[in-house]
Amino acid sequence: MQEGSAHMLKGLGLLILLTLTMTVAAAGQMYRWVDERGRVYYSDQPPPPKAREAQALKPRPSVVETDKEGFELRRAREANPVVLYITDCGEPCDQARDFLTQRKIPFTRKDPQRVPEDAVALKQLVGALEVPVIQVGGKHQKGFDPAAWEGLLSAAGYPVRTEAKGR
What we know:
- By secondary structure, the chain is of the alpha+beta class.
- It folds into two domains: 30-63, no CATH class; 71-155, 3-Layer(aba) Sandwich (Glutaredoxin).
- The protein is 41% helix and 19% strand.
- The protein is built from five helices and seven strands, in the order αβββαβαβαββα.
- The protein has a four-stranded mixed beta sheet with strand order 5-4-6-7, with helices on both faces. A three-stranded antiparallel beta sheet has the order 2-1-3, with no helix packed on it.
- The longest helix has 26 residues, at 2-27.
- It is elongated, with a radius of gyration of 32 Å.
């Protein structure tokens, strides 16, 4: 029985060795070299001793980067940036900010109460220092009205986000 166990251990050791060898090969060490005729070679085998300009290539990770923002959102943001004029006005301003945040709409916050330049810009836009105001591209809406804001964003090309997406 000891002889059978020894044979099984050798088989197991061989299997482990093969697995490790395959793992190293899969890791993909690549080499580049030039032969005596000037031909360039790429291989997973080390270059021969007479090879010129031999070098081990560093493997690049195979990574696909994804755009977290998405094409539609990026296009809308670039064509019609969103500016939100709010102060510490309480519930209306909080609701306005939360609306854009929940919709994942990128926006620039301007506070006409604290920043004089923002106050001037708001007065030029709507004729008064009233908040909240949303500006989407060249259009704006005074006061927080979710339906009106939704229409303004949709007309500007911002995608609609739903909670059930992906189900």
